[in-house]
Design a protein that fits this description.
With 129 residues, this protein is mainly alpha-helical. The chain is 76% helix and 6% strand. Strands 1-2 form a two-stranded antiparallel ribbon. Helix 1 (9-28) packs antiparallel against helix 2 (32-48), helix 2 runs antiparallel to helix 3 (53-84) and helix 3 (53-84) packs antiparallel against helix 4.
Length: 129
């Protein structure tokens, strides 16, 4: 055995699209948002260590969008909520997050789908027998 593993081109493309797709889904289905904030940390870390640099770049920008908008809601959410009050304030917060995450996320997913991905061969650690 040569100690090499192959990453298919479609797997790299899928990895580049994953964080964006899950972030879009979480924003569109509001009850999933809090769960996604917790789970996204693990998904982000897994994809961030992908051997393909392009995959890591797509992941990084998706993280900037999602975590930036979620973090901004921590700072500006309470004042926005109090300006509108009741459910109108929650709707305003959701619209802001929607505007930041969804259109740019869809654009990034489409861009990753159109990009040329190559199969990668990576070395694996030798097994001790």
């Amino acid at each position: 055995m040569d100690g090499k593993s192959t990453i298919a081109a479609k797997d790299s493309c899928r990895a580049a699209q994953t964080f964006n797709l899950l972030s879009i889904t979480a924003v569109l289905v509001a009850p999933l948002l809090l769960l996604w904030i917790a789970v996204s940390i693990f998904v982000y870390a897994l994809i961030a260590h992908h051997p393909n640099v392009k995959v890591a770049t797509y992941n990084r920008w998706a993280g900037y969008r999602f975590y930036g908008s979620a973090g901004s809601m921590m700072v500006f959410g309470s004042p926005i909520y109090h300006v509108f009050g009741n459910w109108h304030g929650l709707l305003a917060l959701w619209i802001i997050m929607f505007i930041v995450v969804v259109p740019w996320g869809i654009w990034s997913v489409i861009k990753a789908g159109k990009e040329e991905w190559l199969e990668m061969r990576i070395g694996t650690a030798p097994s001790v027998v």
